[in-house]
Queue: 2 jobs
Job 1
Amino acid sequence: MTPTTIVAVSIEPFDVALTESFGIAGGAHAIAKNVLFRVRLANGSEGIGEAAPLPAFNGETQALAETALRTLEPLLVGKDLRAWRPLVEATREAVSVASARCAAETALLDGLLRHQQLSMHTYFGGAETSLRSDVTLPTGSVERIREVMPQWQKLGFSTIKIKVGGSSVDDDLARLRVLAEVAPEVAIIADANAGLTEDEARRFVRELRQANLSLALFEQPVAKDDLDGLCAVSREGVRVAADESAWSLASVATLLQKKAVDVVNIKLMKTGLEEARAIVALVRAHGGSLMIGGMVESSLAIATSAAFAGGLGGFAFVDLDTPLFFTESRFEGGYTLEGPTLRLDPEAFGHGVRPRVGRVAPPA
Amino acid sequence: MTPTTIVAVSIEPFDVALTESFGIAGGAHAIAKNVLFRVRLANGSEGIGEAAPLPAFNGETQALAETALRTLEPLLVGKDLRAWRPLVEATREAVSVASARCAAETALLDGLLRHQQLSMHTYFGGAETSLRSDVTLPTGSVERIREVMPQWQKLGFSTIKIKVGGSSVDDDLARLRVLAEVAPEVAIIADANAGLTEDEARRFVRELRQANLSLALFEQPVAKDDLDGLCAVSREGVRVAADESAWSLASVATLLQKKAVDVVNIKLMKTGLEEARAIVALVRAHGGSLMIGGMVESSLAIATSAAFAGGLGGFAFVDLDTPLFFTESRFEGGYTLEGPTLRLDPEAFGHGVRPRVGRVAPPA
C-alpha cells in the first residue's frame, strides 16, 4: 500500500444556525445544513471538503448530499490518490448532486496537496494573496437594511449585494433607494436569483436609472434557461452576470457564444474545481469578467473558493461572505478575515482548513 | 529572497539532424532547430522547457523563438515562482511566438513541481501511466513507404500517420494504397496539414472509399480558417481532426459550436499548458475526442506532452513520435520508450527530463 492510498472516508452532516434568515428569491434558510467529507490516507494525512447544498438555489438538500457522498466509499477506499483525476471522474459519474461532487473533489485535492506540502493557492497559480468580498443583504424589509448597514459600513465593506425578486419590483426598488440613501458610497450588486421575468427585470433597471441609481452588476435577473432574457437585460445597458444559467462548462460556452452576459459567477458548489478552472479560462478567452461566489458556505468551502480565485487571480467580483452569517465556526485556518478582506496563506498545505477540536467527529 | 525566487534564466538554441527529412504539406525539414529554456531558482533547483518552432507548420523559427525568449529575463528574474500564473501571463503578454511561450511555461511549471517534488504527471491528474503513439510517414515517395514500414511494423506500431497534401491527390492516393498493401493490419491517419482544398479533400475521401480503404482519422484536410471546409469533409463520413484550426481555446470553442470536427489535436507548442488544459475540458464537455500531438520535438517537449496527456487521461489519439527521427538525444529521463509505448514515471519530479551531461551548456 502506498502512503497516498485512501484508507477511509467519512461523511458528517453538520447544522449551523445563521445570524439571520438568509433569503433569496427562491426561499429563505435560517440554518445552514451542510456536510463535511473526509478522506484519510495510509500515511495518516487527511483531506477535507464541504458540501453546501442550498434548496432555495437548485433544490439540493443536506439529505441528498449525504446520501450521494455515502455511495463514494467503495469507489475511493483502496485507491491511490496520486491518480486523482480518475477518482474525481468516478465520483462525478456516481453522483449527480453538484455540492456532493464538490465536497469529494475538494477533499481529494486537499489530501493530495497536503501530502505534497503544497498550498491550494499555489497549485492554482499563486496570483493574489488577498480578496475583497462584498456582503449580502438577504431579501427582507426596508427596515432591516437600515438596521444592518451600519455594521457593514463600520467593517469597511464597499460593495453590497442585495437580494431581489423575493417580493414585488416596487418593494425591491424601495429597498434599493433606502440602501443608496444610507450608504451612498457603496457599489451595489442586485441579485434576483432567477426570480424576475424579463419585463420585470427591464423595468427594474429603467426605474433605477430614472432614480439616478446605478448598479455595478445585475446578477441572474431572469430564469436559468432564459438566455434571450439575459440578452435583453444586458441591452438595457447594465452589466449582467450569469449564476444559475452558468451551471456547467458547456452552459457557459453557450452563454459566451450568445454574448448573453458580461460576467460569469463561478461557484465551486455548481461544478467542482476542475470544471470551474476550465470555465475561468473560457470566460477569459472570450473577454468576459469573473465573479467568485458561494452557496451558504462555512469557512471550509469559502477557503477553498478563496484559494481557487486568489490562485487564479483576476476576479472582478468576490462574493465570499457567508461565514459572516454563521453563529459559530466549526473550522479554523485557511484565511484570515479583516473586514471585507480575506487574507490567504500561500504557505498552507492544501486549503489549510481544519475542523475545530471537538466540533466535528473524527472519521470512523 | 525565498528558495523559489528565480535567480537566472538561460536560452540555448540546439540543432539536431533528423534521420530523414520530415516533410509536411507546407515544407520539409532535415534538421530540428529548437531552443532550450531554463529557469534556475535560489535553492539551486532548475526548471526546463523546449521551444520547437516548425516553420512549415506556422512560420515560427528558431531565431524568432530565441529572440522572444531573450526578452523574458527581466520579467522573470527576481520573481517568486510560487506566484507562477502571473509569470506565465506576463510571458504570454510579452511574446507572441507560441513555441517560446510553451518553453517558458513548461520551465516555470517544471521548476515549481521539482521544488515540490511532485511529478507533472500527478499534477495533471495521474490518470494513465502509458501512452501508445502512432508513427509518421512524412511526405515522400511510394518507395520510401516500402522501405521504412518494415521497421515500424517490427517495433509494433499499430497506427500509422501519413502526411498528405505535399503533392497531387493522385500521388497521395497511390501512397495510401501502398501503405494498406504492405501493412493491412494498421489503422491509418491521413494528415494534410491544411494543404488541400475542400474539393480535393472530399475527392480523396471518396476515392479511398471506392478502393475499400478507410481512414481512422483525417487530420486538418483544409486551410486553417476554412471551417466550412472542415464541416464539408466531416459530412463525407470520415472522422476529422482540427490541428492548425485549433490554435487557441477560443478557436476550439468556435469549432465545437459549429460541430466542424470530431477530434481536436492538442499541441502544447500551440497554446502552452494551461490553455491546453482548458481545451481538453471544453472538448470533453462537448463530447469530442482528444488527440495529443507535437511539432518536431525532442524528448523534452514530448515528455511534457506525455505527462500532460497521461495525467489528464482519455486521449484517443497519441502522436508523440518525433524523437524517433532525431539522430541523437540531447536529453534523458521523462519516459521510457518500448516500441510505440511511452511509459511514464509518476514518481518523477516535474517532467523528469534532464539535459545529458555535456550535450547542452549550463545556464550562465
Note: Chain A touches chain B through 34 residues (CB under 8 Å).
Job 2
Amino acid sequence: MMHIRDRPSFVHSAALVETEQIGVGTSVWAFTHILNGAIIGSRCNIGGQCFIEGGARIGNAVTIKNGCSVWDGVSLEDEVFVGPAVVFTNDRRPRSRAMAPSRYSTRRWISPTVVKRGATLGAGAIIVAGSTIGEFAFVAAGTVVTGNVPPYALVVGVPGRAAGWVCECAEAISFVRSRARCDACGKTYARAANSVHRS
Amino acid sequence: MMHIRDRPSFVHSAALVETEQIGVGTSVWAFTHILNGAIIGSRCNIGGQCFIEGGARIGNAVTIKNGCSVWDGVSLEDEVFVGPAVVFTNDRRPRSRAMAPSRYSTRRWISPTVVKRGATLGAGAIIVAGSTIGEFAFVAAGTVVTGNVPPYALVVGVPGRAAGWVCECAEAISFVRSRARCDACGKTYARAANSVHRS
Amino acid sequence: MMHIRDRPSFVHSAALVETEQIGVGTSVWAFTHILNGAIIGSRCNIGGQCFIEGGARIGNAVTIKNGCSVWDGVSLEDEVFVGPAVVFTNDRRPRSRAMAPSRYSTRRWISPTVVKRGATLGAGAIIVAGSTIGEFAFVAAGTVVTGNVPPYALVVGVPGRAAGWVCECAEAISFVRSRARCDACGKTYARAANSVHRS
C-alpha cells in the first residue's frame, strides 16, 4: 500500500526541473527552475519563481517559499524553512567573469554554506557565502548573515547579531542559570559555554 | 459608451491567474502567479514575477512592481504602491511544516497585515506579519517593518524607525507648532498626539 | 572563422526578449522578461526571473544574477556584476499612479542611476534612484545605497556607509601614506583627496 508520503513529486506545468535527483512527495511550483545536478530530498515544498543551481543540496521536508535562489555550494539539511525572497550566495568577492577569467576557471572561488536541520531563515534574509547556520537557529526577516550562527540562536539585523535563543517550536526562550523551558511547548534546554542543546 | 477605465483586465500570456475575483482594468504581467481565492480590485497594475496567494486582498488602483509576494492574510487598500521585490509575510514564527504539523493544521498561525490607503512600500521592504501600515505612510526602500506605522509617517532602517512625515504627494513635510504645509503641493496637515491628518 | 565570443546571443525558450538591441554572445535565462527599448551589450549573462525595462542600458560583459529588476533610467557600464535579487529603482517618491496622474504624465519623475565599469553590487543590494556607483566599487550584500559611491569604495549597511577600499580583483586594500598594494594580485593604487586610482 502506498503511504501518503510516497506520492510522486509534483512539478507544476510552468516549472522547469532538469535534475532527476528529487525525492518522492516533493512539490515544485510555477516559474521555478531547478538545474541538472541539484539534489533535492523528499517531501519538500519549493515555491514559485525560485532558482536552484546544480551543486545545491536540499534535504527532506525542506520548505522554500517563493523567489529564492539556491546556488552551487549551498546545503540545506532536513526540515529547514527558507522564507520568501531569501538570497543565498556562493562567492565572497564576486566580479563579472570577464574581469577574472582565471579565478572562475576552477571551483575554488565557491565558499560553501550549510544550513543545519530545522533552522529558519526569515523572509528576505541574505546569507553571505561561507556561513554555517546551526540547528533550529532562527534568522529574523531581513537579516544579513555574515558568519556562523550557533544552534538555537536568534539573529537579527544588518549585519546579523545574536539577539537571544529560540525553542524548536520557534518561540523565544530565556536561560536562567543555564536552563530554559519553553513557555509555549515545554521543551527544556541546557546551555554550556556558547552552545545550547535539548535537556 | 465605455469609459477608458472600464477596459477588461489584461493578463499577459505568460502569467497565471486562477482567481476570478479580479476587477476591470487591472493588468498582470509575465511570470506572475495569482492563486484562486485572491481578491483583486480594479485598475491595478501587477508587475511580473509576483506571487499572490489565495486569501490576499488587494484594493483598487494598487501598483505592485515586479518580484513581490503577497500572502494569505495580507490586505492592501486602494491606491497602495508596492515597490519591486517587496516581501510580505504571514507567519511570525515559521518552521518547516514537517516540524509543526499541528500548528499548521488550522489557520491560527496567520498574523494579518494591513496596508492602508495610499501608503508606499519602497523597493525591497520586508513587512513582518502582524503590522498595520497607516494611510499615506512611506516605508523607505530596504526597511524591515516590525510593527505598526502611523499614517503619513516615514520609516527607514532595520528595524524600521520613524524618521519624519510625508505628504500625500510623497514629499517630506515638517511640523511647526503642530502644523505643516507641503512645499511641493501645498497640502496642509495638523498633528495631534501621535497622529497626523489633513487640515 | 567565428571567434568564440561572436556566438549569437542565447535566449532560453522560457525567457521573453522583446528588444532587438542585444549584443552577440549574451545569454538570457528562464522566466526573464526584457522589454522593447532595453539596450544590452555583448557577452552578458542575464540570469533567470529578471525584469529589464525599456530605457535600461546595459554594457558589455555584464553579469546579472537571478531575480533582479532593472528599470528605465538605470545604466550599467561594462563588466558590472549584479548579484542575485539586487533591486534597482527609478523613482525617489513613488506613489500609486492613480494618486499622482500628472506627475507620471512626463518622464521627469525618473531619477537616473549609473553603475560604472567593473563595479560589484552584492546579493540583495537595493539601489535608491539617483545614485552613481563608481568604477570597481563593491557594494556589500544587503546594502541599501542611498547616494553616490566613490570608485574602489566598499560600502556596507543600511544605509550604505563607506567601510574601506577594494582592489579591482575585489580583495580589500589598505592605504599607507596614500599608497596601497593588493596582497592578492599586486595591483597598486594611489589615493588623493577622496578619490582612488590605479598607480
Note: The mean pLDDT of chain A is 95.
